[in-house]
Structures are given as structure tokens and as C-alpha cells.
Design brief:
- Helix 2 crosses helix 3.
- This protein is an alpha/beta fold.
- The chain has a single domain (about 1-185), classed as 3-Layer(aba) Sandwich (Rossmann fold).
- The longest helix is centred in the C-terminal third of the chain and has 17 residues, at about 170-185.
- The chain has helices at about 15-25, 30-45, 50-60, 65-80, 90-100, 110-120, 130-140, 150-160, 170-185; strands spanning about 1-10, 30, 85, 100-110, 160-165.
- A 5-stranded parallel sheet has the order 2-3-1-4-5, with helices on both faces.
- The protein contains 9 helices and 5 strands; from the N terminus they run E-H-E-H-H-H-E-H-E-H-H-H-E-H.
Length: about 190
């Protein structure tokens, strides 16, 4: 079972890569965001980025820094199929997944104004914020010395492959396809 993890900045194209892996390569998708939304609904929390951020950090502090992705990995293990786990936000999640077998980490990034435009287009409740709030949210998640908190900068540094997504979806898909060719040739 191949596990591809996806990390990256807000609105960079993580979901676009996930969709490609699902539709074109038959990967099964496990989403940190969906896991947290399930928990938020169960607890009656407001569905916004602040609640999601706090809940994720609380779960990690109560259990382990890799708790959420560990839960998703257990779900994936039951299926036994190649899978993609999106959106990895702590180095502890990466360390834990690297111990599970064939794990490859993709990171994706793009220019901030472009990313903001993308999150506005997707119209998710958690993304309906001003540009200033968007940048502030990202900075809050960019680096932390607390292992239970998001550290996107370190996660991006730990990636096996970094995709800069300032172009078209077709250009991004070509980059992903090239990397997949390299990965599959290693088997």
C-alpha cells in the first residue's frame, strides 16, 4: 500500500492533487479536514477555521501529535488500497506515517494572492474571510515549537516533492504525473 501525504499552504492546490490521484490513479482519500469537521459536528462546535485549528491542537495534545493522521491511517489500513492523506500539518504526523511503510510526502505552494482567489472560489464556510485574515490564519499555522500545533513551514521542508502551483491545473497534473512515474519506477 502506497501512502501519499499532502501538505502545503492554504489554497495552494492540495485538493486538486487529491482529486487527480482519486480520479486518474484510483487512490482512496482520507481528509484531516473531514475528520475534524465530523468531530466539530459531533461536539456542536461552529464550523470555522478557528474551531478547526483549536480542535486539532486539542486532539493532538490529548493523544499524540500524530493523532488525527494516525486515525486516518487506521481507516486506510482497513481498506488496504493506495491512499492519499490530506492535509498534513505537523512534523509528528509525518514522522508517524513514515514508520508505516511506503509513504511519500507531497507539498504544494503558490503565490498568496493566487491562493486567496482560489479559496474564495471554492466557497467553503471555513474560507470566507478577508485577505488579511487569510494571511493571519496562515501565519498562525506556519510555525510553532509546540509539537501539537501546526508547523506548515517544517512540513513543507520535510516533503519528498514540492510542487509550485502558480500555473494551470494541466501544468500541475503534468508535474504530479512525472513524480508518480519516478515513484512507481522505484517499486
Amino acid at each position: 500500500m502506497t501512502i501519499i501525504g499532502i501538505t502545503g499552504t492554504l489554497g495552494a492546490g492540495k485538493g486538486t492533487i487529491v482529486d487527480y490521484l482519486i480520479k486518474e490513479k484510483g487512490f482512496k482519500h482520507y481528509s484531516v479536514r473531514e475528520f475534524l469537521l465530523e468531530e466539530m459536528r459531533r461536539k456542536g462546535l461552529p464550523e470555522n477555521r478557528d474551531s478547526m485549528y483549536r480542535l486539532a491542537n486539542e486532539l493532538r495534545a490529548m493523544h499524540t501529535p500524530s493523532y488525527v493522521t494516525d486515525q486516518l491511517y487506521l481507516r486506510a489500513l482497513k481498506e488496504g488500497k493506495d491512499c492519499v492523506i490530506e492535509s498534513i500539518r505537523t512534523p509528528g504526523e509525518i514522522d508517524s506515517l513514515r514508520k508505516q511503510g511506503k509513504f511519500i510526502l507531497f507539498a504544494v505552494d503558490a503565490a498568496p494572492a493566487l491562493r486567496y482567489g482560489r479559496i474564495q472560489e471554492r466557497k467553503s464556510e471555513t474560507d470566507q474571510v478577508s485577505f488579511e485574515t487569510f494571511i493571519s490564519n496562515e501565519q498562525r499555522e506556519m510555525s510553532s515549537t509546540d509539537p501539537n500545533c501546526q508547523n506548515l513551514r517544517r512540513c513543507i521542508e520535510m516533503a519528498d516533492y514540492l510542487f509550485l502551483n502558480n500555473g494551470t491545473m494541466i501544468q500541475l497534473f503534468r508535474k504530479v504525473e512525472k513524480v508518480l512515474g519516478e515513484i512507481m519506477n522505484e517499486e
